[in-house]
Amino acid sequence: MKGIRKRVSRDNMRKGVYVLPNLFTTASMLCGFISMISAWEGAFQQAATFIVVAMILDGLDGRIARVTKTESKFGAEYDSLADVIAFGVAPAVMVYKWSLEAYGNWGIMASFLLLACGALRLARFNVQIGVIDSRFFNGLPIPMQAVFTAVGVLLYYKLGFTGTFPHPFVFTTVIFLALLMVSSIKFYSFKDLNFFARKPLMSLVLIIITLAIIILEPQITLFVFGCGYVASGPIYLFIKLARKYILKQEEVTQSLHN
Q1: pLDDT tens column, 206-217
Q2: Per 3-state DSSP, what percentage of the chain is helix, strand, and coil (rounded to 5)?
Q3: What are the backbone dihedrals phi and psi of residue 135, each rounded to the nearest 5 degrees, phi first?
Q4: Is there a contact between 145 and 104 (Cβ–Cβ < 8 Å)?
């Protein structure tokens, strides 16, 4: 059986790989690499911008593969490896040079935790495909963590600050984001949204208004959206636990009355 599997794998590789979606994946990885170099040179706004661009490219490669029916096992594995670089290593290096370097070994530990938890999050996602509800992510997605971190840096400079920002709030937030990624808290995936289906006219108007606001104030708007998304998981968990508690109390009350 092993020999047959190896033969099938070799035959698939001889057929080649789909170029277009993998080009977008490669471009995303390149943005992550440039972000690391920029961060090491102290160009933090440039580093953060390239992480945001990497997320856009990462979102496009999967959609292009689905639309053109060029999805493959190779593409999925390559995408995960690229994500580790663009959304794991790149933001970890950026936040270390921008803020955590001042904390010495503790700063190294915190930035590495961000990277390690991101890699673990990707590994868990890969083995849970088809197992859990696709409408939700199990833990904070690593691209959202990376973009939230990057937009936070962009907002810092948008508000007129300069230099680095070695503040305990950044240290705490990095730890929080890392733990959210490996948690079992559910986050909405937006995978059930169908932009090709007919929608009410008001939906188009709201999308246009949202895009206009993002174009006018990208740093502020994206940071607000990022905060909302990061908070949505814990809020959803709290509501779920509260409902469970209320239902349990109602059951206890009913049993006492009976």
Answers
A1: 888 888 888 888
A2: 80, 0, 20
A3: -75, -15
A4: no
Residue 149: how many CA atoms within 13 Å on its side-chain side? 41
Q: How far apart are CA 143 and CA 149, in angstroms?
A: 10
Q: Give the C-alpha separation, 226 to 144, whole Å.
A: 7
Which tokens belong to 91? Answer: 């933001």
13: exposed, middle or buried (Cβ count in 10 Å: 0-12, 13-18, 19+): exposed
Global pTM value: 0.85
- pLDDT reported for residue 197: 64
Q: How far apart are CA 258 and CA 245, in angstroms?
A: 20
Residue 148 tokens read as 């939230």
* Residue from 149, 121, 156, 139 nearest 50 by CA: 149
Q: Which two tokens stand for residue 131?
A: 């197992």
Domain ranges of the chain: 2-194
The list of the chain residues with pLDDT below 70 reads 1-17, 130, 192-199, 258
pLDDT at residue 8 in the model: 45
C-alpha span between 102 and 216 (Å, rounded): 34
Determine the CATH number of domain 2-194: 1.20.120.1760
Burial of 166 (0-12, 13-18, 19+ CB in 10 A): middle
Element (H, E) at 186: strand 186-188
